[in-house]
Amino acid sequence: MASQPLNTFGRVSWMMISIISLLVVWWGLALLVQSRYLPLPQEVFSVLAIELASGELLFHVAMTLMRVAASFVAAMVIGSAIGIAMGKRAWADRFFDGWLMFFLNLPALVTIVLCFIWFGLTEVATVLAVAINKIPNVAVTLREGAKALDPAYEQLARAYRFGRWKTLRHVLAPQLAPYFAAAARSGLALVWKIVLVVELLGRSNGVGFQIHLYFQLFDVAAILAYAISFIVVVQLIETFILQPWQQSVGRWRT
Amino acid sequence: MTALKLAIRHKPFARADGELNAIENIEIEIARNEFVAVLGPSGCGKTTMLQIAAGLDDDYTGTVEYAAGLKDKMAYVFQSPTLLPWRTVRQNIELVFSDPQAHADAIASVLEAVGLAGSEDIYPLQLSMGMQRRAALARAFVLRPQLLLMDEPFVSLDEMLAARLRDLLETMLAGNPASVLFVTHDWREALSLADRLIFLSPGPARITGELTVSLSRQQRCNAAELQNFRDANANVFQPGKA
Predict the structure, then answer these.
(1) Are B84 and A160 in contact (CB < 8 Å)?
(2) Which of A55, A79, B3, B193 could form a disulfide with A135 if both were Cys (CB 3.0 to 4.6 A apart)?
(3) Taking CB atoms and an 8 Å cutoff, what residues of chain A touch B149?
(4) What confidence score (pLDDT) does residue A249 get?
(5) Cβ-Cβ contacts under 8 Å for A142 (sequence gap 6 or more)
(6) Which residues, numbered 60 to 79 in chain B, qualify as contacts with chain A under a Cβ-Cβ cut-off of 8 Å?
């Protein structure tokens, strides 16, 4: 049977059913195993409530979010510039192709460790390490976007003397927007996971640092509490910022 | 007085089997407010010639000279409407101005003239092909151009609609005289609009003939008159074939 598109109510209720079933499975397993290393959902949520009330959780989530935001913006800007150049200019495509191959296959862990060795355990090294991990993906996506630019619109811009700014804003940006949005959405998912690893290795605050701390204490409830809170934050950004934006840039498609 | 002087010596054209000439020695001079139609078979290099004339293609040897200030009063109508699909009809027209607010009246009246009043806030993909072409004409005319370059602007429309858009073009030119370089493969269309015809050969494009159209407005609307005129000048229309 072909699947019918769901209305908002249908989508939300299915999402609820899906999440509740996950909680039920977790709860059942925890009851079955009866181990302090697999706490019941309610235990995790009570840790979450305590951490939230003390302000600890908000502080660490905020620190992580700041790093996510800084590396995300840096990766999007630099990656887009390289990607667009590669898509528009054959020489840039050939020149950066080897670089891209190298950085796409460079393990995130290596970048992080090297950045800490070269630049010390600093905020700059953190943001740099995360951005370097994300830049090649952004570049690849935006390169496709730049290659798909319709030359007819460029001629239009020249024939009617649009100038640089108007061409960028009304001709190039709308064509690149879907690629940019795709890079942003996959980027957010990747960046926050890498930020946690970086925090685990070389920061003294942030969600990754907290998880590291509770790992040493074997406190699974706290680890899950931090993980869940960050999943919620990222999903909120996705649902209320990235998705509506992606839809609004595609509004003209009849 | 000359409005546009086009002298293309050579235009390379890269093809899989090597480089060849798309255009060889085309010289065209257009007087101020003259309507020149360039007739040639599809794919002969008409579009390339027009793009060179507009300064959109720099890869050629030759010269293009405009009367003083004319290049800033140029409008181009593309073979496809080429409206930005992510901007509404009104935004598409506003874009040709650096200060659209100052030209709000002109924009409203040109939309009225092409029969798109009421459709300003629609995105182009929701319009019919005929409406998109009218919007493209509106965008060209709102500038009050003194030089108008048109690349088969009425192609792929049914004859009724094409005839209506030709009337619209004539009406607009009556209100705003301009030098026109109009490229087409349709001799009837060329005869019904132009003061002068220039014939191009299949690629590489060369000029094979020229003809001043001495027809009245009434005659131009009459299919039989057009056919008579063509028959009387058969040697120019079909050199070698007659």
Answers:
(1) no
(2) A79
(3) 159
(4) 76
(5) A79, A80, A82, A83, A84, A87, A176, A179, A180, A183
(6) 72, 74-76, 78
| Residues of chain A with C-beta less than 8 angstroms from the C-beta of B72 | 161
Whole-number pLDDT of residue B16:
66
- Mutation target to probe the A interface, by most A beta carbons within 10 A, among B73, B92, B95 is B95
Each residue's pLDDT tens digit, B170-193: 988 998 999 999 999 889 999 999
B55 at A interface, C-beta within 8 A: yes
Q: Give the residue ranges of DSSP H helices in chain A.
A: 8-33, 41-54, 56-88, 90-105, 108-119, 123-147, 151-159, 163-166, 173-202, 207-216, 220-237, 243-249
What are B92-118's pLDDT values in tens digits? Answer: 999 999 899 999 999 999 999 888 999
- Please state the length of chain A: 254
Residue B125 contacts A, CB cutoff 8 Å: yes
Q: Name the residue facing B123 among A153, A161, A252 (closest C-beta).
A: A252
Report the pLDDT value the prediction gives residue B242, as an integer from 0 to 100: 38
Residues of chain B in contact with residue A153, where contact means CB-CB under 8 angstroms, are: 82, 84
* Chosen from B48, B70, B86, B98 to mutate, greatest number of chain A CBs within 10 A: B86
Contact between B100 and B151 under an 8 Å Cβ cutoff? The reply is: no
pLDDT mean over B22-34:
91
Amino acid at B114: V
Rounded to an integer, what distance in angstroms lies between the CA atom of residue B216 and that of residue B220? Answer: 6
Per-residue model confidence (pLDDT) at position B236: 84
DSSP reduced 3-state for B181:
strand
Under the banding of pLDDT at 50, 70 and 90, the label for residue B223 is confident
Query: What stretches in chain A show pLDDT beneath 50?
Result: 1
The pTM score is 0.80
Residues on chain A touching B150 (C-beta within 8 angstroms): none
Taking alpha carbons only, the member of A177, A157, A187, A185 closest to residue A253 is: A177
What is the C-alpha R_g of chain B? 18
> Can you spell out the DSSP letters for B62-86?
EEEEE-TTGGGGEEEE-SS----TT
- Angstrom CA distances, B145 to A155, A174, A200, A234, B69, stand at 18, 28, 65, 53, 11
Where is B138: in which H helix or E strand? helix B129-141
Mean pLDDT of B80-86: 93
Write out pLDDT tens, residues B134-165.
999 999 999 999 999 999 998 878 888 888 88
What is the mean pLDDT of the segment spanning B202-220?
86
Distance from CA of A152 to the nearest CA of B (A): 7
